[in-house]
Amino acid sequence: MTVTKFQGTSITRLFVLDYGLFRVHAGGRVVGIPGFLLQTADGRNILIDTGFPAEYADDAATASRRDGLDGFGQMLHLTRANLPAGQLALVGLTPADIDLIILTHGHIDHVGGLPGFAHAPILMAAAERQHPRPLYFGTARPMAWPLADYRLLDYDLSLCPGLDIMLCPGHAPGQLAFLLQLPETGPVLITSDAISRPSEPSEGFAGSWDVAQAKASGSRLLALADRHGAFIIWGHGPEQWPTLRKAPDCYS
Prior knowledge:
- Helix content is 19%, strand content 29%.
- The two termini are 32 Å apart.
- The chain contains 7 helices and 12 strands.
- Strand 1 (11-24) and strand 2 (30-40) form a beta hairpin.
- The longest helix has 18 residues, at 211-228.
- The chain has helices spanning 55-58, 60-67, 84-89, 108-111, 126-129, 200-203, 211-228, and strands at 11-24, 30-40, 45-48, 73-77, 100-102, 122-125, 150-153, 157-160, 163-167, 176-182, 186-192, 231-234.
- The strands form 2 sheets. The protein has a 7-stranded mixed sheet with strand order 4-1-2-3-5-6-7.
C-alpha cells in the first residue's frame, strides 16, 4: 500500500502527550506513557500512538484483571484528561483535527485509542498489521483493528523534511522509531520501545519479542543519536519522564 508523503512541508513543533503513569512490578519502575503530536509548517497534525484503552481511565483495576496486566504492573494515574482527546484539547485540537496517525507498535499502551482516529490514515509497520488483532498484552487479544485506511511500511521512510521513520524490530515485530529535526531544538530521536530506558542496552533487552533484533536496533539508534548529536526521548524512561516538556508546552 502506498504511503502518503507530506511533500513540501516540514516538522515545526513536537508536543509530548501524557497518557498516564504506570508502575512495573519488577524493579518498581514508575513510567510515563507517552504519545506525541507533531505539527507541520503547513498546519497538519500527526499523532504518534494513542495510549491505553479508554476503559482504563474509568476502571483500571477491572480492565487490568481482564487483560492480565495486573500481573505485570499497576496503573497509578490515568484519567479522561490523559486520553488522546483530553491531551489534544490542551493545544486546542480535537481528534477530528488529526491528519495522520502513526502507530509505533501494537501493544496495549500504544494502540488503545486507535478506534477514535479511524477517520485518518494509519501509518504502521506491515509486520504489526499482519497480526489478525493488535498484539495488545501477553496472550490477550480483546481489541480488533478498526476499519481504516492503513498505510503499511516495510522499509525506513523520510515522510517529510524533519521526520525520518525507522523500522527497529526487536521489542515488537514492527517497532518504529523517529528522528526529528526541529527548527530550534535541533535533532530529536524518539526511540519509543525500541529502547525503553537508558539502561536497557546494558540490561540486554530482556523480555523483547526478539532479543537479537532488539540489540541490533538499539545499537543502530544509539549510533544515530551520537552521529546527529540528538536529544533522545526514551520510550519509558523513569528518570526522564518528569523532566520532559509536556503539552501544552512543546519543543520547536
